[in-house]
Design a protein that fits this description.
The chain has 312 residues and is of the alpha/beta class. The chain is built from seven helices and 14 strands. The protein has helices spanning 39-53, 75-86, 99-104, 107-113, 153-165, 193-208, 235-242; strands at residues 10-15, 26-27, 33-34, 58-61, 93-95, 125-130, 133-137, 212-216, 248-253, 260-263, 269-272, 285-291, 296-302, 307-309. The chain has a six-stranded mixed sheet. A six-stranded mixed sheet has the order 6-7-8-9-11-10, with helices on one face. Strand 13 and strand 14 form a beta hairpin. The longest helix has 16 residues, at 193-208. The radius of gyration is 18 Å and the shape is globular. The model has no long low-confidence stretch (mean pLDDT 96). Monomer. It comes from Camelina sativa. Residues 12-258 form the Calcineurin-like phosphoesterase domain.
Length: 312
């Protein structure tokens, strides 16, 4: 007994929405400042800090590695430049795709660059860092108007959803849409049928193996954790699968930039991470997560808030 501090089972680094571009600072549609060149400095500081920690098993990047305003003739070089920075981490780095990644490069170029182990252009996968834990990475732009060829069935399905749900001529605008219907904009996306079945089978398998699960995706999965205009199109379908299993403890996301934390009615913890892109020069946003048997603890740097995910 006494005051011995329990060691985590393992720890891993996190960062979201670096959205680097070699262009002057700008603002979001809502007027929030964006520091496109500074974000690579945030990433460099993150990698240094993670390496100094010395005991992080891996790093997860929550997507949007390069910004959509990056000049398209620089997209490939900028993505490679950022991947090189991530690769300075002394351990594996797991990426996922966000909408800004897809504004820059098509899936067939992105997936090998980011070493995403998907098949047929799909970018969802899972891995088990320790016997008791499974990490599931979702592809939130499986059904999307960006990233697939224009005549691809998934593009066509996405455009149909947008036409039915969003009357605006600019499909990136949620104007006039109410509450969670605001999510039906082009910069969000959906999880397709095949991926939903895959998610169900992975969670079933994790459950049979008594593994706890952390689900990661670029796009937030609960209206409680993010802006209603920054949600997965079919978050309800995804969550109804997740809620079938007690094994899922936490859902991590990026995309919404301001950050958020919410525990849903089934006791699943949702955490959307503060964006690296929105750090004024000299400030930072990254962290690492300590994983214990019955809780997680996010240790944030600067603009990334500390969070204890207690009592599962």
């Amino acid at each position: 007994m006494g005051s011995a501090v329990r060691q985590p089972l393992f720890s891993f680094g996190v960062i979201a929405d670096v959205q680097y571009a070699d262009i002057p600072d700008g603002r979001s549609f809502l007027g929030v400042p964006r520091y496109y060149r500074n974000s690579i400095l945030v990433l460099q500081r993150a990698v240094e800090t993670w390496n100094q920690h010395g005991n992080l098993k891996f790093v997860i990047n929550m997507g949007d590695i390069v910004d959509g305003f990056c000049p398209k003739d620089q997209s490939l070089a900028a993505t490679k430049k950022l991947v090189r920075e991530f690769d300075k981490f002394n351990g594996p780095v797991y990426h996922m795709i966000g909408n800004h990644c897809l504004y820059n490069l098509p899936r067939e170029e992105l997936l090998p660059l980011l070493k995403i182990p998907g098949r047929d252009g799909n970018a969802y996968y899972d891995f088990s860092p320790t016997p008791g834990y499974r990490i599931v990475v979702l592809d939130g732009y499986d059904i999307s108007a960006v990233g697939w060829p224009q005549d691809h069935p998934k593009t066509i399905a996405a455009l149909k959803i947008l036409d039915e749900k969003n009357p605006n001529s600019d499909k990136n605008s949620p104007e006039g849409l109410e509450d969670v219907a605001r999510r039906f904009v082009k910069y969000n996306g959906g999880v397709g049928e095949e991926q939903l079945q895959w998610l169900d089978s992975v969670l079933q398998d994790a459950s049979n193996s008594n593994q706890s699960v952390i689900v990661c995706g670029h796009v937030p999965m609960s209206p409680g954790v993010a802006s209603k205009a920054a949600l997965l199109w079919n978050f309800d379908e995804v969550m109804s699968i997740i809620h079938k299993y007690d094994s899922v403890k936490v859902c991590l996301s990026g995309h919404d930039h301001k950050g958020g934390y919410f525990v849903d009615s089934h006791g699943v913890h949702h955490r959307s991470l503060e964006a690296a892109l929105e750090c004024p020069p000299g400030t930072y946003s990254f962290g690492y997560i300590d994983v214990y048997e019955n809780k997680l603890s996010l240790v944030g740097t600067d603009r990334m808030q500390n969070t204890d995910f207690e009592n599962y």
